[in-house]
Amino acid sequence: MSARFEEIDWQPTPIGEISLRRRRDPVSGEDVYEVKLGDEFLMSSLFTTGETALAELALAELPDTGLDVAVGGLGLGYTAQAALDDRRVRSLTVIDTLAEVIGWHRRHLVPLGARLTSDARCRLVHGDFFELAADPGGLDPEEPGRRFHVILLDVDHSPRHVLHPRHAALYRPAGLRALAGHLRPGGVFALWSNDPPDEEFTTALTEVFAHAAAHVVDFDNPLRGGTSANTVYLAGTAPDTP
Question: Which of 13, 145, 150, 202 has a CA that sits 20 to 30 A from residue 125's CA?
């Protein structure tokens, strides 16, 4: 196999064949890690600005210390690491439906695996975020009823372009209402999307949360040239009243 390309792992999963690849970027000379589901690219270490902004924008909404954060979707770990880089975060629960992806991190096959798995604040949980979000028992199987200051979600391409049809229910008012029940008063839900801001989804957020907005995150795109953009939606629950 060429030194410029390596398939590090390939596994069949309930949602299709998933693979982890590493290639050498001919321009920068750096290693680029990519995840594919079947023939579809899911993520790349070449584009992490949006994933990092997801955590940073959400945490910037909160002045508190001792924050408990939940993340739906582990991926290559950039959202999780951005959360841990904020020293106010005292606990991070990362939920992923694919044990194979969690295994990549525990086996240190991806760049951030060693950092995430060695941080005592971080716990990787094998579970279906969408099922847990709809369950009154909550997102943390080890602590039913637990509520979080921040919930970050980066699984689907967008509220309209989902990886599995059953995910769509979360992006409707009833699904968002169930999710909001896992937040503390004054808590923040943040969602990454690869699509431009969606007015219909923003309206659904405002039906459930005390406030909501869509933020466009621009980043350089060396593959296409120029810049590309992701969207980060932020929605907050009402604070406790005196």
Answer: 202
Residue 137 structure tokens = 């028992």
Q: What is the DSSP letter of 200?
A: H
How far is residue 154 from each of residues 27, 109, 159, 187, measured CA to CA in Å? 28, 21, 11, 18
Whole-structure pTM value: 0.94
Q: Which residues contact 228 (CB under 8 A, 6 or more apart)?
A: 47, 218, 219, 221
| Rama region for 77: left / alpha / beta (φ>0; ψ in -120 to 50; rest) | left
Burial (CB count <10 Å: 0-12, 13-18, 19+), residue 110: buried
Query: Backbone dihedral region of 186: left (phi > 0), alpha (psi from -120 to 50 degrees) or beta?
Result: left
Q: Is 6 helix (H, G, I), strand (E, B) or coil?
A: strand
Q: Are strands 67-72 and 89-96 parallel, antiparallel or unpaired?
A: parallel
Question: Which is nearest to 120 in space by CA: 92, 140, 80, 141?
Answer: 92
Question: β-strand 122-126 against 5-13: which pairing, if any?
Answer: unpaired
Instruction: Give residue-wise pLDDT tens across range 92-130.
Output: 999 999 999 999 999 999 999 999 999 999 999 999 999
Residue labelled with tokens 């693979």: 19
